[in-house]
Specification:
- This protein folds into three domains: about 5-50, Transferase, Pyrimidine Nucleoside Phosphorylase, Chain A, domain 3, CATH 1.20.970.10; about 80-325 and about 425-440, Nucleoside phosphorylase/phosphoribosyltransferase catalytic domain (Pyrimidine Nucleoside Phosphorylase, Chain A, domain 2, 3-Layer(aba) Sandwich); about 335-420, Aldehyde Oxidoreductase, domain 3.
- Helix 12 packs across helix 13 (about 290-300).
- It has helices at about 5-10, 20-30, 35-50, 50-65, 90-100, 120-125, 135-145, 160-170, 175-190, 210-225, 250-260, 265-280, 290-300, 305-315, 320-325, 350-365, 405-415, and strands at about 80-85, 105-110, 150, 195-200, 230-240, 245, 335-340, 345-350, 375-380, 385-390, 395-400, 415-420, 430-435, 435-440.
- The strands form four sheets. Strands 1-4-5-13-14 form a five-stranded mixed beta sheet, sandwiched between helices.
- The protein has about 450 residues and is α+β, with helices and mostly antiparallel strands.
- The model is unreliable at about 450-455 (pLDDT under 50).
- The chain is about 45% helix and about 15% strand.
- Bound molecules: uracil.
Length: about 450
Amino acid sequence: MNAVELIRRKRDGGELTREEIRYLIAGYVAGDVPEYQMSAFLMAVYFRGMSPEETARFTDVMLRSGSTIDLSSVPGRKVDKHSTGGVGDKVSLILAPMVAACGVAVPMISGRGLGHTGGTLDKLESIPGFRTGLSIKEYTDVIRETGLVLSGQTADVVPADRKMYALRDVTATVESIPLIAGSIMSKKLAEGIDALVLDVKTGNGAFMNSYDAAVALASALVGIGTKCGKETLAFITGMDEPLGTAVGNWLEVAESIECLKGKNVPDLMELTYVLGGAMVHLGGKAATIADGMQQCRSAIWSGRAYEKFIQVVERQGGDSSFVREPVRYPAARHSMDVLAPSAGYLTGFDTRRIGVLAVELGAGRLKVGDPVDAAAGIILCRKIGDAVGMGDVIAVVRTDRDGAAEKAAREYCSCVTIGNSPPGRTPRVRATVDKDGVHSWTTPVSPSLPDTDAAR
Ligand code: URA
């Protein structure tokens, strides 16, 4: 077999067999297929796609590039959530301890920032001492003891994705249904779960901009999960503005801590409760998603979710004093207010561009292995629908890089649209996709538990 021939066949729209895919991927992991050939292959897949069968073969080869984790010794159903990536998406940090506090075990293997989107691992590692590089034994010990583990891919688990994910990030080959499906599902199938909830983003900050593309990705992910015997449910959710009010690693951890203590950031917490409710339901602890959402609210409101977060931070080596007192965290060297250029209502964001600005401030990577700056990022002071006066502070940019704040502040203004009247509301959670197809979704309201920090 020969890599050039395989790349050429994919470039020309052909299909590869399992053996051929294995040859490329195993060769890449071993260092026999160089990065320039893997980059060319990824770009060929980006343009030519893969058939559903080829995507399933690709996922299986990725999965078998390393070990799979057996969590059968951990009692109960194990359920995870995965997002296809967004800007300001810190849901995992709130949801994982919240669901674990409801009695469902959450084994979570996450990734680093990819393209313009942030990654849960980079966020967790902004907590001094927090270790995400766990061995399989440590991973199993942590979940057995705490009901929750927040890990990166160990050297043993899906090494192919660890290497390819970093390469895709810097070769503009992220936005591809088979590559995303193979990347996500190989990790999820390796981590020892019984069921999976997926957050598939759509909108101008998502890898899949259009609703139809998001549904196609969700269907591919659900199809692979179902075929592998895991109950899999996807939600199609909006990513037309950053989620919550913080973009950047520590800034997002700090916002998550506030939410774990009961603050209601409406878009962030609606999504967290819906996805969490579905996990509690699939975990067998709630008869319906709505019932699961009520249990999640109670876990937040009672403080159990926050305590669970502290427990896992300490168990994975993190310094929990920064979680207890986020004001102690060292701030970025430069901070600059962004002022509204006109008055009116904020009607839209160029969300992808905001993610890129955060990367340029130091919150993400432009090349494989670039360090990230934990305190860099953007605080959003106005969201879609908010009234804005001319000269109001609409955002604050933070960075350690000299000169970067001025540039980002200038560019942020061109990422927001200010109109004369408030925009119409679009639902944040648009639909669900399961093995039977696409279904409409309306988020149930909470009848009995307080939602806001004012209530605590
Ligand atoms: N998340 C992943 O884990 N992989 C992708 O390719 C995209 C989002």
